[in-house]
Amino acid sequence: MKILKIQTLRGPNYWSIRRHQLIVMRLDLEELTERYSSDIPGFYKGLTSVLPSLIEHHCSPGVRGGFLSRVERGTLMGHIIEHVALELQQLAGMPVAFGRTRETSTSGIFQVAFEYDNEHAGRYAGRAAVRLCQSIVQTGTYPTEELTQDLEDLKELKAQASLGPSTETIIKEAEAREIPWQQLNARFMIQFGYGCYQKRIQATLSNQTGVLAVELACDKEGTKQILRDAGVPVPRGTVIRYFDELQDAIDEVGGYPIAIKPLDGNHGRGITLDITKWETAATAYEEASNASKTRSVILERFYKGRDHRVLVVNGKMVAVAERVPAHIIGDGQLTIEQLIEKTNRDPRRGDGHDNVLTRIVVDKTVLSMIAEKGCTLESVLPPGEICFLRATANLSTGGSAIDRTDEVHPDNVWLFARIAKIIGLDIAGIDVVTPDISQPLREVDGVIVEVNAAPGFRMHVAPSEGLPRNVAGAVMDMLFPPGQPSRVPILAVTGTNGKTTTTRLLAHIIKQTGLAVGYTTTDGIYIGDHLAEPGDNTGPQSAQLILRDPMVEVAVLECARGGILRAGLGFDTCDVGVVLNVSADHLGLGDIDTPEQMAKVKSVVAEVVMPKGYAVLNADDPLVVQMAERVKAQIAYFTMNPENEIVLKHTESGGLAAVYENGYLSILKGDWTLRIEQAVNVPITMNGRAPFMIANALAACLAAFAQGVKIEHIRAGLSTFIASTSQTPGRMNLFNMGDYHALIDYAHNPASYVALGAFVKNWPGPRIGVIGGPGDRRDEDFVTLGQLAADIFDQIIVKEDDDTRGRERGSAAELISKGVEQILAGVPDPSIRYETILNETEAINTALDQASSGSLVVILPESVNRAIQLIESRNPIQESNNNSHPPSLNSSTASLKPSQV
Fold first, then answer.
1. Is 828 domain-assigned?
2. Is 38 part of a structural domain of the chain?
3. pLDDT per residue over 443-482, tens digit each?
4. Do 641 and 741 share a domain, yes or no?
5. pLDDT band of 881, cuts 50, 70, 90
6. What would the mean pLDDT of 338-352 be, rounded to a whole number?
7. Which of 173, 511, 536, 890 is the right S-S partner for 472, CB 3.0 to 4.6 Å?
């Protein structure tokens, strides 16, 4: 077996709309192609011995042990690898369950798709699953040390990708509220929401957290001074910078007991509490100084009481936890060292911050605490006697937390909220020492020790004792108050042909409303009227760029087949999803071999539309109509045929539609008709004689109307959108060259040739075509292009793209010529002339040089910009509104009813 390709999907995709995170492996089973698991000696026994936990996989039988029963009866290796990849992740602490395996049209080649929790771990699991199964096939087992290493590596990958417990808590709350999120590629920031509604966090700092407040909170002495001036009870203390000042400082605060901490520390590093003698104070000073960036140390009077962390979010106390330092309790039998080991065996404890509790590490500080008690690691404590192992109660050093939220005295609740306001933090962690949190601080000599920016949530979300508190809910309430949206409207467009024109027209229409539109197309990413990034940008990364931009108020996203297959959609749901058409293009790529499979790819856009939104579907395309069965949203149809039975039935039941009727682009809703504009007044329709452009315009108008755009804005958009090199480069760009005209269009597949032909064949003069196609299409597709071209043009020049996409130079042109010859062979006296000029620039110049008076030169280029430059170098006549009006065309061959022209 060998892996041919591994892809990572991060959004709704061909395999699943709901399961966004999938690994897809293209796997060649080689010698195992026709071998079922039941035919491989010892395989079942070996697999169940190595991974007995596979008994929990239900698989298609739907019962425990269902998958293993299929292995025992016989199943193909691709299916087994899918389940092994899932189980390896499960064993490494990453719960995943979804998988699919499908054989491709190539014998022995399978697509194995399975869910991942962390994408690097998912890819590793796929490779490890192949290694494991191959080993069992060959030897009957998989070495224990190999499996152990695999699981350790997977756990390490998971740990490396961890965002931290506080961040993950907020993310889970956002997901519960269906607020989208994405990780930004800088400073571990997370964006919630889209476009102009976005909010950001970094750990538990938000974009609303003031920098002055953070700076003040990091200055422990400055914080204490501000609070003291406001009448808040704080410890007596001073700041020193040299060891020689230590004794005077102890005297200044009134002697022992004292606490020493770094001036600018965090996470409890360098803090020593309840110091009662000089030797301990000297050691504590050294530790605090080393932990301080400025080498400055705070020395405070130590106040007896219990340590509490108060969390205030948006001016409201939301949780309080009592923090207990790491400790053990004697039982009269086990040594201190054995008690620590026993404590660490608690399944809630682990390394770092990802677990409810952290393992206790025996270090110099722990040994010092044990020694102060007059004990060693070998000492046995009497039953019930407590030995504290840390002076501080931080969870990161093994401490535990007890929820005390419901016990806080009302005066303290008010005080804590006031403190957060005084410091200026929207999310504040306030450290309080008091004998009794249920009594006002002043009455029990309680004090505010410090105020922290970016406080941890772990102790509140998963306390060792008491009720968990949904503190992340308070953060989300602050970032997105009730009634405030988190998403900008998303209108997505897909289809085989017309995507870019429809996307640009739809964006142009919405601009008429005054909103800032971000949109993606095959020629660039645009924010408003500005090109943000040139090039083909129709994949998920381009969509993410738009949705990350804080200037965007509406997103219009062109979604191409390649991006959906390669990585999934760049968004989880949309308000309007438009599917223009599905035809035989790009077949044979990405294991998509039939129009039906391609329709499934395109239907992803329609299927992710939210229930209150609209899926805009082409009622004239049977493959698109079938998508309605899988759509959860409302349906809106568009059609070029006002008698379309699907649309008539749909509107009779109150449905929404757009129809080309009596020469008008009209909206139908129930039994009323709202006419938008006559096609002859819509520039991109070439005076109403380009049917495919009318269809594109119908789709754009319907999508805008479904989104709530007013008719006057739609009409204004239609009348000002020109098929020019500035607004639609490479899409029906007509140039007046004086004696003749030239047309540039990016038609590159049979369906687009047919659509273009419906316009070109009406041209009253000679028609010259410079034609070709992308090299990664099937042989039969090129032959079809030649056949269609012979039906459209009087003269044909066959050229090839500079990038042959893996084909031998000249082979694509030869196949196109073959198609032309097949048509000419059936004509008694063919008048069509054709030749092959492989170089695109030479082919274009030859056609332009040979153009006769009144002729039309149609250029179907690889490089739109190059073709435009070649034409503009010949100084075309500049028409008003930057568009060349075609001469009066014949209508006898148009694919429209006479009454519609």
1. yes
2. yes
3. 999 999 999 999 999 999 999 899 999 999 999 999 999 9
4. no
5. very low
6. 84
7. 173
- pLDDT band, residue 886 (cuts 50/70/90): low
CA angle, 837 then 839 then 844, to 5°: 75
Identify the domain containing residue 283 by its residue range: 236-301
The yes-or-no verdict on residue 766 having pLDDT over 80 is yes
φ, ψ dihedrals at 117, nearest 5°:
-95, -45
**Does residue 334 fall inside a structural domain?**
no
Rounded distance between C-alpha atoms, residue 624 and residue 603, angstroms:
8
The residue behind tokens 């071999």 is: 593
Bridge-based pairing state of the strands 517-521 and 490-494: unpaired
Write out the DSSP string of 342-373: HHHTSTTEESTTSSSEEPPP--HHHHHHHHHT
Question: Do 661 and 785 belong to one domain?
Answer: no
How many CB atoms within 10 Å of residue 642? 18
Alpha-carbon separation of residue 627 from 487, 572, 605, 708 (angstroms): 25, 18, 10, 23
- Asked if 673 and 754 sit in the same domain, the reply is no
In eight-state DSSP terms, residue 442 is: G
Residue 829 burial (CB count, 10 A): 4
Give, for 26, the enclosing helix (H) or strand (E).
strand 22-28
Question: From the centroid of its chain, how far is CA 432?
Answer: 41
Alpha-carbon torsion (203, 204, 207, 213), positive or negative: negative
Q: Which is nearest to 740 in space by CA: 849, 882, 840?
A: 849
Q: Using CA atoms, how far apart are residues 451 and 429, in angstroms rounded to an integer? A: 6
**Residues 740, 708: one domain?**
no
Q: What is the pLDDT of residue 711?
A: 95
Tokens coding 119: 């994408």
Element (H, E) at 114: strand 109-115
Element (H or E) spanning 160, and its range?
helix 144-161
123: amino acid identity, one letter:
R
Closest to 372 (Cα-Cα) out of 507, 475, 274: 274
Q: Report the chain's mean pLDDT, rounded to a whole number.
A: 90
Structural contact between residues 117 and 20, judged by C-beta atoms closer than 8 angstroms: no
| Predicted confidence (pLDDT) at residue 410 exceeds the cutoff of 90 | yes
Strand (E) positions, 314-457? 316-324, 327-329, 349-350, 357-358, 386-388, 400-403, 427-434, 447-453
Q: Which of 697, 720, 743 is the last residue of a domain?
A: 720
Q: Is residue 69 within a helix (H) or strand (E), and if so which, with residue range?
A: helix 66-73
746: Cβ contacts below 8 Å, ≥ 6 apart? 500, 522, 730, 731, 752, 860, 861, 864
Of 433, 435, 405, 430, nearest to 415 by C-alpha is 430
* Whole-number Å distance between alpha carbons of 492 and 551: 19
Structure confidence at residue 555 as a pLDDT band (50, 70, 90)? very high
Q: Which of 569, 573, 568, 599 is nearest to 586 (CA)?
A: 599
Backbone φ and ψ of 871, nearest 5°: -70, -45
Count of structural domains, the chain: 4
